Structure formats: structure tokens, C-alpha cells
Amino acid sequence: MILVVACILPAAIMVGSLIAYQYQREQAQFRSNAITTARTMVFAVDQRLLVVKAGLTALATSPSLRTRDYSSFYAEATATLPDLNAENIVLLGPDGEMILNTLKPFGSPLPANKASQLKQVVQSGKPVFADLFTGAVAGTHRVAVGVPVIDGGKAGYSINASITPDRLQAILLQQRLPAHWVAEIVDTAGTIVARTRDQERFVGAKVTATARKRLSEVSEAAVDSTTLEGVPALAAFSRSGLSGWAVVIAIPTDSLTADLRRSMLWLGFGTLLLLAFTFALAQALGNGIVRTTRGLIAPALALGSGEPLAAPLPEPWFREAAQLGRALEQAAGLLSGANRALTQSEARLRAILESAMDAVIIADEDHRIILFNAAAEKLFGYSRQEALVASVDRLVPERLRDDLAARLDAFGQSGDQYLRSTQVLVGLHRGSEEFPIDAAISQFVEDGRRIYTFIVRDVTERVRSHDELVRSNLDLQQFAFVASHDLRTPLRSIKGYLHLLEKRYGPGLDVKALDLIHRASNAVQTLDRLTEDLLSYARLDAQAKPFTAIDCNEVLADTLQLMDAAIVESAARISAGPLPVVLGDRGQLVQLFQNLLSNSITYCEGHAPEIRVTSELGADGVWTISVADNGIGIEARHHERIFEVFKRLHTSQEYPGTGIGLAMCRRIVERHGGRIWVASAAGQGSTFSFTMPVISEVHHDPAT
Ligand code: ADP
């Protein structure tokens, strides 16, 4: 309906405007036509006057006038009268006195009053067209044409012919104007001389002062005015250049606007009719559209719920509906294809899930299990049916359930996609025995609800072998500790005996024997140092302390103090940049720095050692601390070996040492969760670097 109104109303307004515009133009045209008509009528009147004038001029040359033979002239005038189509002919003397009048028999007495207007004929010596006056003889209205009689170069008489309004009216009526139009002749004084309607009533009446003024101002115009009957009308007039009289045509305004009103009425009526018709049509079309569209609802819903499009689609009422219907059918086809693909991929996924070695469990936002694969059944001892109604809480020991729930919710809120346990967790079998597990959790959102996926692995084996490894390591350490500790006592005895031997029997022994004793005690010394180093290496774990925040700047300061004598003796220059605070074992960190610094001092030849300790924070949040020297350097092929126990690149004669230092360093660094390496080349100095995790990470890592 809105569409119909929107279409038709502007068109109706447009047509209305066009009609109004056309009307305006027609009006203008009409006015100009009315003036032309008035002009034509003026022309007709002028023709008539000219005929009269010509007849009179001919009479004026009559010889009987010159001889004053008025009787003959009377006869001539009477004979001419029919040709002139005038009322009568009058001969006037120089002062306007009447000499003869064809209305009266020749010789009969004539009125004495003088024709004032026609006097001018003699005075001016030119023809005159007299305005409306009352004839002295007939006593009725008339106008007159007068011409002078020139005798001896000057006008002595005037011959005049009078024309009655009836005769003038006949000229107007000849034009056959429409019945409701009124035409009138108005003389120079603004008096109505002739009129097509109600002539008797209006001849002699004056037109209004404004009309008169307008008539005197311009020779032609069309103005809105009112007729003498009081009817509003369009008055078009044209004034004669000959007589100064004007023909006025009055056309009632009503008749002019009637056409417009009729057009507008028809337009309004037509618009209403069109509206009614188009409303009905729109209603019919709309019903069809509604019917067809409603018919598509059920198939669309069926499509949405994945059902086949049961019934054939309704007979489409318009082309787009047919297209939509086809699209629905196509969509149904695609959907069933997609469904098939979905079913296939579901089947594949299920196959993967069921054959997976790890337990896969999916739980919803409320921790309710919605998927439980075969491995999960085996791992936790629940059948799928049992698990599917339970909460994941049931898969951990009771004491850990709150913790699990809290962690899951925190993970859900974190928005992270993935979470992997950093420590071994505890699972609970249906038979209530606990076992160590490793779990990775991921989450996604489905229909606005959070879904968690757990991949759980039984790590009983791994934990057991790890425990065994730890135990055997401990055994080994214990062994090394006991061995080195127990070795020291006999070593000390050997040392003592060698000392005694040298002291007591030294003076009696020859140089060779003395040398042997020296060598023996040197070997004992080396062995002692070795056992001592071995002992401290073995004690590393035994003496380990819990980690605390340690400022490495202080560790370095302590180390330098401990090494004061060696530094002074070697004239080593040691500089250090700012070092980080790390989480560690202070004693071990001092050992670490001490080993690295003393190596840098030891393995330097020919110049004073220059050592620089620096630190750098990597993008991965890990600190790297480096000890760089200008010593003898290490060939690349030895870069790995030097960190092994007892691995040395030199003899004790060349450089003292036991080959334990760097092995200790590696153990300390690894215990702190870092790694250690060297960058060096022979003769180029060495840079030993090790990493320490940043303190915040270390602090939050629940595994530590
Ligand atoms: P030790 O110093 O007791 O021999 P280490 O385990 O400390 O044992 O070092 C092993 C070997 O690595 C050393 O024998 C030495 O050859 C080499 N080394 C260690 N530090 C440096 C260094 N700063 N410059 C050159 N060589 C080094």
C-alpha cells in the first residue's frame, strides 16, 4: 500500500502541476487571442467609418453645394444614404447650425441647437468622428462622421452622417463571439456606444473611471476587471487609431477557470480511482507473495533441523520464490553432502579417539563428562556409560578435587587455549588406587558454553624409572662419597709414611731414592686432591640447600674475596656488569663463579688475565651470565668434553687441576634449571656462559 501511494501520489502531483502550468500558458495565450479579437473588431468598425467618410467626402464635392442648391444636394444625399449604411445625413453651417437633415423633408423647420462636436469639422477643416450624442431631430443616441466641404480653400460647411448604436451592434454581432462573452464599443469619452448584450440598458453609460484611465493609457491590453453587470471578467481591448474608440471584450472569469477546475476534478477523481485500483491489485499481489513466502517457511525450518524437505515446494507465485525454492533444495542437497562429510569426519575422529593410546576426555563448563574414549575407560576403570553421567572430579582423589575445579575455572577464565601440567598429577582409578598422570587441557567455546578437552597419560612407568634413576644416582653419589672419604685416610697415612721415610732415612739415601720418594709423595698429593674434588662433587646434592632469591652481584663479590690471593698473585683484572637476582643456592653459585674465574686465571699465559663478567636478559625471559677471559682458549672439538668429569686438556705439569671443576659447574647450573656452554677458539680466549631462568618464572613454576 505504501509502495502504491509512493508511486501514484508524486505522479498525481506532477500531473496537477503540469495542468496548472498548462493552464497558465493557455491563459496567456487566451489573453493575447482576446486582444487580437478586439483588434479585429476595431478594424471592422474602422472599415465601416471609413466607408461613411469616403461617401461623405464624395458628397462634399457636389456642385450643388457650391451653387447653394440645397434642394438638389438633399436629393443627392438621400440617394447616397443607402450606400453609406448610415442613419441620416446632415448638412451643417459654419457654426454648426443645421441646414438640412435627411430625417426631415426638405424645407421643414429644423431644431436650432447647434452640434457642438461637429463644429470642429469646419474649424479644423478635417474629418471628425463624433462621440455618442443624442440626435437633435431623432432624439436618440448616435455617433457621427463629419467631413468638411472645402470651398475656395477653406471649410464653410460640414457634411455629417450619423450611425445608430444598433448599426454598430450589428458589426459586433457579425464577429459571432461566444454567447457568454460581451463586446462593446467605447468612445473617447469612455461612453458605451454599442454592446452585444443589453444594448438598450447600457448605451450611454460610462465605463468605470479605472477602465477609462486604462483605455487612455495604452492602445491594447487585457486586464482583470468587472463587467457593468458586476461579473468578474477578463477585459481585452484595442483602441482605434482612426476614431479613438475602443472595442472591449469582456470574458467572465468563471468560464475561464471552469476548464482548470474541471481538469483538476478529473485528475483528483482519476487519482482516487487509480489508487483504489492499484490498492486492490497490490492486495492481490501481496497475498500471492505472502502465500508463497509462508509456503517456504516449513521447508526452511526442515532444512535448518537437518530433515529432508518432505513435501514438494509450493507452486511458486513469482520467479524469485521459485529461485529461493530451488536454492533451498540445493542447500538441502549441500547440507546432506555436508552432513555426510561430517559423519565421515566424525567417524574418522572417533576411530582416532578410540585407537589413541592416551585417555581423551571432554567435559563441559560444569565439568560434566561428555566424551570418554576407550583409553580413558581402560585408564580409569569406568565404562563409557558410567563416565558420561559423572563429573571429571571423580577421576582425581577427593583431596585434590577442589583444587582441580579451581584450576579448571581459572584456566577457563584465562582464555588460554592450552594448558599442560608442569608436574605429575594424581589420577584415581575406579578401584580407588591412585596413579601418576600427565595431562594436557585445551578449551574451546561451543554454543556459548566452554568445553574442556583432557588428554591424560598414565606416567606410572616414567615416574618409577625416574625414581629408580634418582635412587641409583643417590647410591652412586653415596658410593663416590664413601669411596673418596674412605680413600683419604689411607692416603693420609701413605703421605705421613713417605714424610717419615724422607725425614729419618733421607740423609742416608742416594739422590735416585730421594727422587723416587718425591715422586711418590707428589702422586699421593694429586690423588688426595682428586679424592677431595671427587668428594665435593659427590657432596653437591647432599649439601644442596633450598633455593632463595640470590643477588648474583653479591655472589660475585663473595667469590672475589675468597680468591683474593690468587687474583693478586696473577695480577688478574676482573670487571663485571650488573648481574641479576636469581632463585638459587648461594653456596653453589659461589662455587660456580669460583670454578669459572679460577679457570680463567689458570689457563692464561704470557700476560695478565683480563676477565669480564656480564649478564643479558633474553627474549624468552632467561638470563645468560657470561665469564669471558683472554686466556689460551679451547679448540672447538673439546667444547663438549671439558664439562665431563676428569676430562682435562693438559697434564698437571702444564696446568694444575683435576678435571672436576667444569663438571661441577654443569651440575650446579643444571640443578638451577639452566645450561652451560663455552664459546672459544685456541689462543682466542674463552667465554663460558650459563643460563638462569628469571626469578618471577621460577617463583611461579609449581614444579619447582
Ligand atoms: P681442571 O681445571 O681442574 O683441569 P676443569 O674441569 O675446570 O678441570 O677444566 C677442564 C679443562 O678445560 C681444563 O683442563 C682446561 O684444559 C680447559 N679449560 C677450562 N677452563 C678454561 C679456560 N678458561 N681457558 C682455557 N681452557 C680452559
Top keywords for this entry?
704 residues; alpha+beta; Beta-Lactamase; 6-stranded antiparallel sheet; 23 strands; 51% helix; binds adenosine-5'-diphosphate
Task: Tell me about this structure.
The protein is of the alpha+beta class. The chain folds into 4 domains: 34-263, PAS domain (Beta-Lactamase, 2-Layer Sandwich), CATH 3.30.450; 356-458, Beta-Lactamase (2-Layer Sandwich); 464-541, Helix Hairpins; 545-697, Histidine kinase-like ATPase, C-terminal domain (Heat Shock Protein 90), CATH 3.30.565.10. The chain contains 19 helices and 23 strands. The strands form 5 sheets. Strands 11, 12, 13, 14, 15 and 16 form a 6-stranded antiparallel beta sheet that branches. Mean pLDDT is 88; it is low at 697-704.
